[in-house]
């Protein structure tokens, strides 16, 4: 582990790291990271759901040794905490995705690399040393998507995470108001040249929303999953599932399920991911692994999600705040603090192993 700077060691929780991260960002980047769609009901709902759910801890369970280890798709993790895909880590830190990847590797975690990274896949793959999944936005240019999938495989990705909740970007109104734009020194090497980006209309609203709309495929359906299946031997995870109906379809199509509302950035007033989890666990009925993201900032959040059937949880903004606060060391600090909180929460719930976390621990 890299040695955290003085500010980072003074951060005793993820809220402290968030404050440090926010302070390091300009308005353009901060509004991009922090925003949710429209009135941000879902953004707040993701957090509120954890505060409402209460624990039913068990006593006298011998917690002299607590083991937080688990696996995702056969990959051993130090704890059930991974990093969700987010675009443009170069907005947070000059080391961009390389810092995040090195932190995931150093902490025995797993990073999900966004299609819209500022760093080429092969560079991130080398830094992550196998501790990465690749997140796919399917482009209208299917050939380019096919090449990207091949590159991800060749770079050591262990899964393909296909994001299904964003045929269009939700309206993050601060980004519209202040015309969010990717700074000139950053590019998105997996999707298009800077030239293509420059051609996208920027006179009105968020450059990002226009750019995204121009690139991604909006016509994809369940039937087209066979096409995706034929492109890769990697496990496929569908990210953005919020209902039992879609979870059932995902499992029928041989996919794993990532419960998410995109951090409240897509459909405002969509159900919180944590509230959606129980019906999804029922519908999947053990046929696939289930992951969850959205609003995770405390060890007890991790514990509740895992107790109710998530194999692992993933950090979106929390990882970005750490990255902005201190690059690789900042992301490591985020992961370490949360893992330590999770371990203590397990002990105080009378759970010595992750398998001991069961739904009986949670009163919804
Ligand atoms: C700044 C930002 C960029 C994101 N970019 C992507 C992306 O490129 N692909 C994707 O599937 N999800 C993306 N997401 C959604 C995250 O993967 C994740 O679902 C969400 O952030 C989880 O909520 P949290 O931020 O409360 O942890 C992004 C989220 C944020 C905050
Ligand atoms: O901002 C996002 O939530 C997101 O998913 C995204 C990714 C790439 C480009 C634009 C938006």
UniProtKB/TrEMBL annotation:
This is Alpha-hydroxy-acid oxidizing enzyme. The lineage of its organism: Bacteria, Thermotogati, Deinococcota, Deinococci, Deinococcales. InterPro entries: Aldolase_TIM (IPR013785), Alpha-hydoxy_acid_DH_FMN (IPR012133), FMN-dep_DH (IPR000262), FMN_HAD (IPR037396), FMN_hydac_DH_AS (IPR008259). Signal peptide: none annotated. GO terms for molecular function: FMN binding; oxidoreductase activity. Its cofactor is FMN. Residues 6-364 form the FMN hydroxy acid dehydrogenase domain. CDD domains: alpha_hydroxyacid_oxid_FMN. The keyword Oxidoreductase applies. SUPFAM superfamilies: FMN-linked oxidoreductases (SSF51395). GO terms for cellular component: cytoplasm. Keywords: Flavoprotein, FMN, Oxidoreductase. The keyword Flavoprotein applies. Belongs to the FMN-dependent alpha-hydroxy acid dehydrogenase family. The active site is at residue 262. Gene3D superfamilies: Aldolase class I. FMN binds at residues 85-87, 114, 135, 163, 239, 316-317. Transmembrane segments: none annotated. It comes from Deinococcus indicus. It holds the Pfam family FMN_dh. PANTHER family: 2-HYDROXYACID OXIDASE 1, S -2-HYDROXY-ACID OXIDASE-RELATED. Glyoxylate binds at residues 32, 137, 172, 260, 262, 265.
């Amino acid at each position: 582990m890299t040695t955290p700077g003085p500010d980072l060691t003074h951060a005793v929780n993820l809220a402290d790291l968030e404050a440090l991260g926010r302070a390091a960002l300009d308005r353009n980047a901060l509004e991009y990271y922090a925003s949710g769609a429209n009135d941000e009901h879902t953004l707040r709902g993701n957090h509120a759901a954890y505060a409402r759910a209460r624990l039913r801890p068990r006593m006298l369970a011998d917690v002299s040794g607590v083991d937080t280890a688990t696996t995702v798709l056969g990959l051993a993790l130090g704890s059930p905490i991974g990093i969700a895909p987010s675009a443009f880590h170069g907005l947070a830190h000059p080391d961009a995705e390389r810092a995040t990847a090195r932190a995931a590797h150093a902490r025995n975690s797993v990073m999900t690399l966004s299609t819209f990274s500022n760093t080429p896949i092969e560079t991130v793959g080398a830094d992550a040393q196998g501790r990465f999944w690749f997140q796919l936005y399917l482009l209208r240019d299917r050939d380019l998507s096919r090449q990207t999938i091949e590159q991800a495989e060749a770079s050591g990705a262990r899964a393909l995470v296909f994001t299904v909740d964003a045929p269009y970007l939700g309206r993050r109104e601060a980004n519209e108001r202040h015309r969010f734009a990717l700074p000139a020194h950053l590019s998105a090497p997996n999707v298009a040249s800077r030239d293509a980006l420059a051609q996208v209309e920027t006179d009105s609203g968020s450059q990002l929303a226009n750019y995204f709309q121009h690139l991604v495929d909006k016509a994809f359906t369940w039937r087209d999953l066979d096409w995706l299946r034929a492109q890769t031997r990697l496990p496929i995870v569908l990210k953005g599932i919020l209902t039992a109906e879609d979870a059932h379809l995902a499992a029928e199509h041989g996919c794993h399920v990532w419960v998410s509302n995109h951090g409240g950035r897509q459909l405002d007033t969509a159900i919180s991911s944590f509230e959606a989890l129980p019906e999804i666990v029922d519908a999947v009925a053990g046929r696939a692994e289930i992951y969850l993201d959205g609003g995770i900032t405390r060890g007890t959040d991790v514990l509740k999600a895992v107790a109710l059937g998530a194999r692992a949880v993933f950090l979106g903004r929390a990882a970005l705040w750490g990255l902005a606060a201190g690059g690789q060391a900042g992301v490591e600090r985020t992961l370490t603090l949360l893992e330590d909180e999770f371990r203590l929460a397990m002990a105080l719930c009378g759970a010595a192993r992750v398998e001991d976390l069961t739904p009986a621990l949670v009163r919804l």
